[in-house]
Specification:
Blueprint (H helix, E strand, L loop, with lengths): L7 E7 L4 E4 L5 E14 L5 E13 H10 L5 E14 L5 E14 L8 E3 L22
Parallel strand pairs: 4-6
Antiparallel strand pairs: 1-3, 1-5, 2-3, 3-4, 5-6, 6-7
Length: 140
Amino acid sequence: MARSVNKVILIGNLGKDPELRYTSSGVAVATFSVATNEQWKDPDGNPQEKTEWHNIVAWRKLAEICGEYLKKGGKIYLEGRLQYRTYDDKNGVKRYVTEIVMDQMVMLDSRGGSQSSSSMEQSAPPAQQEGGEKSDDLPF
C-alpha cells in the first residue's frame, strides 16, 4: 500500500506574538501567524514581492515554548502538517480555516540564538570531524 505525505516546511517571520491558551483539560495550545515572501522581476525588469500569511498552531510543550520565546518579527524555521477545519461563527455562518500544525521549529533570529526545540534536538547526531572527533565549531 502506498504511503501518503502531509509535510510543510517554512522559513518566515512571526506576524504577531503567539497567543497561548489552555484547553479545558489543561493542554497548552499556541496560535500565531508567519509571513513568507516571494520576490521576482516582472517582464519589464521591475522587482515584485508577494507576502503569504500562514496560520500556525502548536500544542503541548512546544506551545509553551512558543509562548515564552517567540516574538513578533522573529525569524523561524518550522515543520508541520496542513490541516483544514470548519466552524460556525457567532452568526451561524460556516467558516473554513487552513492552518499548519507545527511539530518542530528552530528560532533563527539572534534573540533566540538558533535555539531548537521539540524533536529537532534529537533528529541528527552530533557532527563529526575527520578522525571521529566531535566538532563544536560548526555553525549549525
